[in-house]
Write a structure and sequence with these properties.
CATH class of the largest domain: Alpha Beta
Largest sheet: 6 strands, parallel
Low-confidence stretches: 476-490
Shape: globular
CATH topology of the largest domain: pyruvate-formate lyase- activating enzyme
Number of helices: 18
Length: 490
């Protein structure tokens, strides 16, 4: 009577934290439960074959925005080939607007919200009765102290080959309407000593890459400092043994005690993901986002100037009422602060998020298929949005990759958004592609643009690209590459 826990991860390097949280709390059913992970892009028939090899009685699928279409195909095949297997769905994609989805029509049961204890309870009913009467079950939210932690169930291959996802807390107190965390009442912390003991066990087993999924890592500074001290102790005891930790920070909350701890980390040890999303105060108020822009900018500038952390900062295009000019001004402001990466995101309509309340007033038009990206708004036309999508892709290839740090300062000049948009339009006109552009070809295109469009002498352009190539061969990371380019630009 095997129970399978499965999902399709976006990449092999992503080990599913959600499946391991379920497995950790399977109680007496854990012995007959197996975790089977896949990666998106595989043939549905191949996945079904591998699932059926376990002769399961129940299969639980973790459903997310990036895998819902492929899992729908897998579930459809399973219900035709092996209709006796009970299919249980969970995850954010099926926790909202549940009745409207084809995948939930195909499945036997759906658990909305938290599944840690709800899944095992449903499995008990399926296996031992009485049989569940309802298809959709609201997952209970127990106190975190009652949940078994999942970290023992990262195996040796996970530790050796993959980034490990961990969480010191769940939930978020903020109400940004584009995010599912807007539905949370608050943030709930795991007990710090218990969590750090689990991290210690992972470290002793060889784990060196930790990605925190907490929405607000620096909300409780006492806890943040304790976790940072855990990593500092390891780094200072074994400076020859690289360690990497990724955190998501609230941009306008960086007290001196946290700055002092951050300053102690060496290059390559810290990455901060920081959501700015928009600098437009009217748009911020419209989407219920509270943010002190001046404090946020001061903190980002301080981190860029004084810390060794890699700074990955998010902006979102397509928010209700924000036009291209406003987004461009925010982009230029963010670039001037010296951050390492600007993650240029396009607004997506995640199921259940309050952003849809602005649909009519601000003319929001979303793609009906995952990932539900915005296609046009009352302030940004469809054609303009297409240009922004291409800009975002080329920005990743040229700027965020760190491969063209010297050339980038020439491409951007004094008007980064406008100048890179010009370059983006030229790239698309000369390639008709945004994907599968080989690095060698991309370098040749940058060289042509510098010479033909910006009028740079051939020998100077070639020298600039040569310096980019030499920097790519150096052991220094992207943070150093981009920051050195900024210093040159200054």
């Amino acid at each position: 009577m095997t129970i399978l826990l499965t999902t399709l991860n976006a990449r092999y390097a992503h080990a599913s934290l959600g499946l391991r949280c379920l497995y950790a709390n399977m109680a007496e059913l854990q012995e007959q439960t197996r975790i089977v992970e896949f990666v998106i892009g595989a043939r549905a028939a191949d996945l079904v074959e591998r699932l059926l090899a376990h002769a399961p009685a129940i299969i639980g699928f973790g459903v997310y925005i990036w895998n819902v279409e492929e899992i729908t195909h897998v579930v459809a095949l399973l219900k035709r080939i092996a209709p006796h297997i009970k299919i249980v769905l969970g995850g954010p994609e099926v926790s909202h607007e549940t009745q409207e989805q084809e995948i939930t029509r195909l499945a036997d049961y759906v658990i909305t919200g938290w599944g840690d204890t709800g899944f095992v309870a449903l499995c008990r009913q399926i296996l031992h009765g009485p049989q569940p009467l309802m298809k959709v079950h609201a997952g209970p939210q127990p106190p975190l102290a009652e949940l078994a932690l999942p970290y023992a169930y990262y195996d040796e291959r996970d530790i050796r080959e993959r980034t490990l996802y961990v969480e010191a807390s769940r939930g978020c107190p903020f109400k940004c309407e584009f995010c599912l965390s807007a539905l949370d009442k608050t943030a709930w912390p795991f007990e710090t000593a218990r969590f750090l003991a689990a991290l210690e066990d992972l470290y002793q087993r060889g784990a060196r890459q930790f990605k925190f999924v907490d929405r607000t890592f620096n909300l409780n500074i006492k806890t943040s400092l304790a976790i940072l001290q855990f990593f500092l102790d390891k780094i200072e005891a074994h400076p020859e043994d690289p360690l990497y930790a990724h955190f998501e920070l609230v941009p306008d909350h960086l007290p001196d005690a946290l700055k002092t701890a951050i300053l102690r980390f060496p290059p390559g040890a810290l990455q901060f993901e920081i959501g700015i999303q928009t600098f437009n105060p009217q748009v911020q108020a419209r989407i219920s986002r509270k943010q002190d822009n001046d404090k946020a900018c001061a903190n980002l500038a301080w981190l860029a100037a004084h810390s060794q952390a890699h700074l990955h900062v998010d902006l979102i295009a397509g928010l209700p009422g924000e036009d291209v000019a406003s987004f461009a001004a925010g982009f230029d402001r963010l670039w001037s602060l010296g951050v390492d990466e600007i993650q240029f995101g396009i607004l997506k309509r995640l199921r259940g998020t309050p952003i849809i309340r602005h649909t009519d007033e601000f003319g929001l038009v979303f793609d009906p298929l995952p990932p539900y990206a915005i296609q046009a708004t009352g302030s940004i036309s469809f054609l303009e949005m297409q240009e922004l999508v291409r800009f975002a892709r080329y920005w990743d290839l040229v700027a965020n990759s760190g491969r063209f740090a010297n050339s980038l300062r020439i491409l951007l000049g004094e008007s980064p958004f406008a100048n890179f948009m010009r370059f983006s339009r030229w790239l698309f006109a000369n390639t008709d592609a945004t994907h599968r552009i080989a690095l060698e070809r991309l370098a040749g295109l940058v060289l042509r643009y510098l010479e033909q469009e910006l009028g740079m002498p051939q020998n100077e352009a070639a020298l600039l690209l040569g310096r980019d190539h030499a920097r790519r061969q150096a052991p220094e990371g992207n943070s150093g590459q981009v920051r050195q380019a900024r210093h040159l630009a200054a």
